[in-house]
Amino acid sequence: MIRRPVSRRGFLRGMAQAGAALPLSALLHRSALAAEGGGVPRALFVFIPDGCAPELWHPSGDTYNFTLPRMTDPLESVRQHCVFLSGLNMYSGGSTHEGGVAKVLTATGDISMDVFIGQYFKDQTPHASIHLGVASNHQNGSGYMSYLGSGQPISPEDNPLSAYERMFGPPGGVEDIENRRKLSVLDAAMGDLNTLQTRLGQAQRQKLELHMESLREVENRILAADQAGAGACSQPDWNREGWTIPEGYNSYPKYHDRDDQFATVGKLQMDLAVQALSCDMTRSLSLQWSHPVSPTHLQPETGASQRHHDSSHFDASNLASAENFVLYKRWFTEQFAYLLRELDAQPEGDGTLLDNTVIFLCSELGHSSRHDHRNMPFVLAGRAGGLETGRALDYSSAHNGDGETHAKLLVSIANAVGIPINSFGYTGHGDGPLQGLYA
């Protein structure tokens, strides 16, 4: 077990958890961050299904002067926030869809990186890690990307209303949460403190009183800081359209799993992810769009005439499938661009939430038709850990042209949020972080 010294913020947050409800704890912690003028590093993992066509995904050109092809050019508007990675392979472990999704965040180890980061910071946030999905459980026979341990996959929460309630409490409880926010944490614990005072000698009582006065001063500064932001945490403005599940709906598939709800649910989950990270509900969050062998059909949104997985089986003799697959990948990268813009729109400390977050866009296959795990469609974004963005990095020449292991990328992500590891899972091509990402 990893143990760390308790900070002033940690002590206050512990008092908040002991004396009030969970949302109040999150509010105080977020206000403390704002009061100190900074932010904490976070990690966000985003999965899109069924790989890519590498020649239509990876940039052409050099490190700083590159052109995005059709599948990724929706990211042109946010390229300054991204690092486009090519030449990374996933080695060992299982093959095809099932093997790929099982190792994309584990690198053939037992635990996935999103869970690993969450466990590292679990004593500092209300939730260790949060796992959201968009129809990720619907007809899923191919697996999930998050693992609590060996053979223990985590099923994401696909219903945004349920996800909201787990994080922020019942939707109808906003007024009560707002009232609790106004309460003093010290006042809530005063009964216990008074009892403690009766058991202490005079010198110890004086020390306790001085300590309580100091805590009161700190508490007042925290509660005065960033009140607008604190209000946003007690009343998250994430479901602006009032999306809900029709009363009495009891059909298959579940309402939130339906194709005609896919885009709406996805936006809600992205907005909720931004809110959760902004309120410091967790330091690690994953969002899984559908799943490998995705049955999703987004005809109105993309114009595609096939389901997602069917279109991924493209070849030179099936140009219609190839075009449909391009349409799907463009739609998914458009969603990723939206997510980055929303993170960048959230002020935090002297910058934005994007400045304090590392975001990993991933899939379970490299070349979709070949079902391989080479030249994976990976994009890194955000500036946590000092990531130099606005670049395209090619690792295909590593190891005598064999390419580099993606396990080193996972090490780099852990390092970016302040976890000092040198290996994670697979080490057949060496250990350490991925060279060139960070100064």
Automatic annotation (TrEMBL):
Q: Where is the composition biased (Polar residues)?
A: 292-305
Q: Where is this region: Disordered?
A: 292-312
> Does the record carry Signal as a key word?
yes
**Keywords of the record:** Coiled coil, Signal
* Domain of life assignment: Bacteria
Keyword Coiled coil recorded: yes
Q: Which InterPro entries match?
A: DUF1552, TAT_signal
Q: Which residues form a coiled coil?
A: 186-213
Q: Which residues form the signal peptide?
A: 1-34
Pfam families in the cross-refs: HXXSHH
Question: What is the name attached to this protein's record?
Answer: Transcriptional initiation protein Tat
Organismal lineage = Bacteria, Pseudomonadati, Pseudomonadota, Gammaproteobacteria, Chromatiales
